[in-house]
C-alpha cells in the first residue's frame, strides 16, 4: 500500500504543484489521471525519492520516503523522458542498470535480463543498439529497466505518450500483466489508458485530488450532465467550446455531445462514459452554463 498524507510541493521557481494531497493506493493497477500541469509527475518524482515534498509525507508498504535507499530498492521508476545511451544494446544497458541496482551476481543478472527482455518482447533485438529502436521499443526497454530486481512498486509516468495505437494497447497489456501482485502507478491524461485495467483511479487537477476511487465513481461524475442534440452550424458556433465533448456529422445536422447542468433546447440526457465523467469533473466549475452568455 502507498499512503500519501497531506503532501504539498512548492517549487522555488514556480507555484504550488501539489496542494495537500492525501491518498491511499492499493495493490494492482492505479491510474493517476489529470490534465497537463496537474502535478502527476511531481507526485511520482516525490514517490521515487527524486525530489522532496515541501510538507507532508508518504510511505510505501510502511516505509517512509525519508528512508530513500530502502524505498529505491522497493520501486521501479520509468520517467516521462526516459533516456538511454543510444550506442548501448538493450542487454548492455540493462546489465548496467542491474549493477546500479545492486544485483552483484553476473549470472543472476544475465538470467533476469534475458527473461525480462522476453517479457517485454525485445528478445530478438537484445543485441541491437538502442539508437535503432522505435519509440515503442524504447518504452518497453524502459519498463524492463524499471522491473529489474522485481520491485514491489512500479511507477510509470505517461508511458504511452507518443506511442501509436497498436503499441499503446500492447503496452497497456504489458503493464496489466505486471500489476498482478504489485502496485503499478501509471500517470496519464488519456482516459483510454486507464479505462480497462485500473482497479483504482485518482484524478489530480491543479495540484489537488479531485476524486479517488473506482472507475465507476468517475463515470458517475457525468450523471445528469451529458446531453446530445442535433444542432445547426449556427447553433453549434454559439456553444461554449469547453462544454462540447464531441461532434459527429449526421444527415440531421451536427450531433453534439455536451456537458452541462442544463440542456440545450431539444437535447436528450445520455449515459456518461468514463471520459464524460472525467471531463464533467474537471469542468464542474465551468460547465454551469452550456450556452455562451
Ligand atoms: N522543476 C520545476 N520548477 C518549477 N515548476 C515546476 C517544476 N516542475 C514542475 N513544475 C510546475 O509544477 C506544476 C505541476 O507540474 P507536473 O509536471 O508535476 O504536472 P503533470 O501533471 O505531470 O503535467 P504533464 O501532464 O504536462 O506532464 C506545473 O505548473 C509545472 O509548471
UniProtKB/TrEMBL annotation:
Transmembrane segments: none annotated. Residues 2-231 form the ABC transporter domain. Pfam families: ABC_tran (PF00005). It comes from the Bacteria. Keywords: ATP-binding, Nucleotide-binding, Transport. GO terms for molecular function: ATP binding. PANTHER family: ABC TRANSPORTER, ATP-BINDING PROTEIN. Belongs to the ABC transporter superfamily. This is ABC transporter ATP-binding protein. It comes from Paenibacillus puldeungensis.
Amino acid at each position: 500500500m502507498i499512503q500519501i498524507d497531506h503532501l504539498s510541493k512548492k517549487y522555488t521557481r514556480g507555484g504550488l504543484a501539489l496542494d495537500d494531497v492525501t491518498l491511499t493506493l492499493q495493490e494492482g493497477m492505479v491510474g493517476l489521471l489529470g490534465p497537463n500541469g496537474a502535478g502527476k509527475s511531481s507526485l511520482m518524482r516525490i514517490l521515487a525519492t527524486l525530489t522532496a515534498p515541501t510538507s507532508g509525507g508518504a510511505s510505501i508498504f510502511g516505509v517512509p520516503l525519508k528512508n530513500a535507499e530502502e524505498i529505491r530498492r522497493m520501486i521501479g521508476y520509468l520517467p516521462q523522458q526516459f533516456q538511454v545511451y543510444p550506442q548501448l544494446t538493450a542487454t548492455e544497458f540493462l546489465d548496467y542498470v542491474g549493477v546500479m541496482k545492486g544485483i552483484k551476481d553476473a549470472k543472476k543478472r544475465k538470467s533476469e535480463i534475458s527473461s525480462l527482455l522476453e517479457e517485454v518482447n525485445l528478445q530478438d533485438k537484445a543485441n541491437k543498439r538502442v539508437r535503432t529502436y522505435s519509440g515503442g521499443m524504447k518504452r518497453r526497454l524502459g519498463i524492463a529497466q524499471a522491473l529489474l530486481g522485481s520491485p514491489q512498486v512500479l511507477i510509470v509516468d505517461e508511458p504511452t505518450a507518443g506511442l501509436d495505437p497498436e503499441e499503446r494497447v500492447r503496452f497497456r497489456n504489458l503493464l496489466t500483466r505486471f500489476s498482478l501482485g504489485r502496485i503499478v502507478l501509471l500517470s496519464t491524461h488519456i482516459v483510454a489508458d486507464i479505462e480497462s485495467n485500473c482497479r483504482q483511479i485518482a484524478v489530480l487537477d491543479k495540484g489537488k485530488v479531485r476524486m479517488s476511487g473506482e472507475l465507476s465513481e468517475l463515470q458517475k461524475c457525468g450523471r445528469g450532465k451529458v446531453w446530445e442534440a442535433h444542432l445547426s452550424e449556427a447553433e453549434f458556433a454559439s456553444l461554449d467550446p469547453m462544454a462540447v465533448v464531441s461532434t459527429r456529422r449526421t444527415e440531421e445536422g451536427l450531433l453534439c455531445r455536451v456537458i452541462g447542468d442544463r440542456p440545450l433546447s431539444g437535447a436528450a440526457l445520455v449515459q456518461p462514459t468514463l471520459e464524460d465523467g472525467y471531463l464533467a469533473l474537471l469542468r464542474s466549475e465551468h460547465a454551469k452554463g452550456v450556452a455562451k452568455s
